[in-house]
Design a protein that fits this description.
The chain is mainly α and 98 residues long. The chain is 23% helix and 0% strand. The protein has one domain. The chain binds iron/sulfur cluster (SF4) (2 copies).
Length: 98
């Protein structure tokens, strides 16, 4: 039986998906979630998730799957892709008009 290409795996030390998108669910110290482009408060200095496996982890995080389409081939590429996706969807935090 033929096996398909190996599944895409999350890159250690990336965390672009914990920085680039806005999150509308409550996060530690950020009851209304976070704006796009700022690191999630649950992100540790070594870029791991403090809430991993916990009930408080936003659903959007548990359901996000690493893939070539969203994660690209580098952290920089992932940031660019996720920033573009963020801009293409309704932002949870409208940009300031000033
Ligand atoms: S953007 Fe993709 S590769 Fe980077 S941390 Fe998130 S899931 Fe992993
Ligand atoms: S809760 Fe965890 S997985 Fe979700 S954005 Fe924050 S650090 Fe990343």
């Amino acid at each position: 039986m033929e096996s398909g290409p190996p599944a895409f795996e999350c890159r250690p030390g990336c965390a672009a998906c914990c920085i680039a998108p806005s999150i509308s669910s409550a996060l530690p110290g950020m009851g209304s979630g976070k704006a796009a482009g700022i690191p999630c408060p649950a992100l540790t200095p070594d870029l791991l998730c403090l809430l991993y496996g916990r009930q408080e982890r936003p659903k959007v995080c548990s359901s996000f799957k690493a893939s070539r389409e969203t994660c690209g081939s580098s952290r920089e590429e992932a940031m660019a892709i996720l920033e573009a996706l963020e801009a293409a969807t309704a932002p949870a935090f409208p940009k300031s008009s000033s």
